[in-house]
Amino acid sequence: MTLDLSHLSTPAKEAAFGSAEQRIRQVHTARWIRHPRAETALEHLDRLIDFPTCARMPCLLLYGDSGIGKTMILEKFARKHPGHYDQTQGREVRPVVVLQMPPAPDERRLYAALLDTLGAPFFVSDGLAVLESIALRMLKSVGPKALVIDEVHHLLAGTAREQRRALNLLKTLANILRITVIAVGTRDALQAISTDPQVVSRFEPMELPRWTESDGFRAFVAALARELPLRKPSSLTDKASTQLLLRRSEGITGRVCWIVGQAAEEAIRNGVEQIDVALLDRVSQRLHLQPA
Questions:
Q1: What is the pLDDT of residues 43-52, one digit of tens each?
Q2: Maximum Cα interatomic distance, the chain, rounded to a whole number of Å
Q3: What pLDDT was estimated at residue 292?
Q4: What is the distance in angstroms between the CA of the first residue and the CA of the last residue of the chain?
Q5: What is the DSSP string of 238-259?
Q6: What is the DSSP string of 143-172?
Q7: Residue ranges of the domains in the chain?
Q8: Which residues contact 117 (CB under 8 A, 6 or more apart)?
Q9: Which CATH class, in words, describes the domain spanning 36-207?
Q10: Per-residue b/e over 242-254, b at no fewer than 16 CB within 10 Å?
Q11: Tens digit of pLDDT for each residue in 194-239?
């Protein structure tokens, strides 16, 4: 019997012919889900990386709740601008450098994290001046256009003095290297950045809010459904399904994907091959995702 898989994307169509275990593995494999909100964020990041070099480079604070999708956007952005070896200049070029803000933020730890990311050797005993010199030399060598610092809300774990010095370091890197700095974190990141008036004036805030009932959310759920290797179309975008997903996920992208993924696994295991509101309801109750 020929399967009508017109409801699936091309990769999902190919996966739909696999075994149950293969398809379940595919369901739970992280993938980029293209939807308007994410595309808007990516387009903005691309504008920043293409901004002409100037004395005061634009910087961005991308913030939102944990699980809202910031990391997926960053990973997609980094994949769009991969590093390469420049044969002419005989050096590695990395258009985008991504690192995590250390849990205990101070200048020394931040430089050490940067050197780890760049794969540069240094001694644990090296002083701040040495780490700074090596980091700046390495950054100039690889020539990034954007420096992305994730988990920037960790700044709040430091003292007021440590916060100011770390924030000044970000501003200094943008000034010296003439690159855009993209700070990423939870809503607390906005508070962290706001502690320094000079820094906050440099970082344009861009929020990824929780989902609400909207065409954008339905577009996201529809795109997600197209990537699930189910052999029958699911009713994920009808009003009852979208309202239930929003209620049980509280508008958090990661929770939406979790509920839908678990429902898809159950649909494969029990042979129904599609997701409806009853299955979403049963799965989300089992996962205890109802709002408190």
A1: 999 999 999 9
A2: 70
A3: 44
A4: 47
A5: SHHHHHHHHHHHTT-HHHHHHH
A6: --SEEEEE-GGGGGGS-HHHHHHHHHHHHH
A7: 10-31+227-286, 36-207
A8: 97, 98, 99
A9: alpha beta
A10: bebbbebbbbbbe
A11: 877 877 888 899 999 999 999 999 999 999 999 999 999 999 999 9
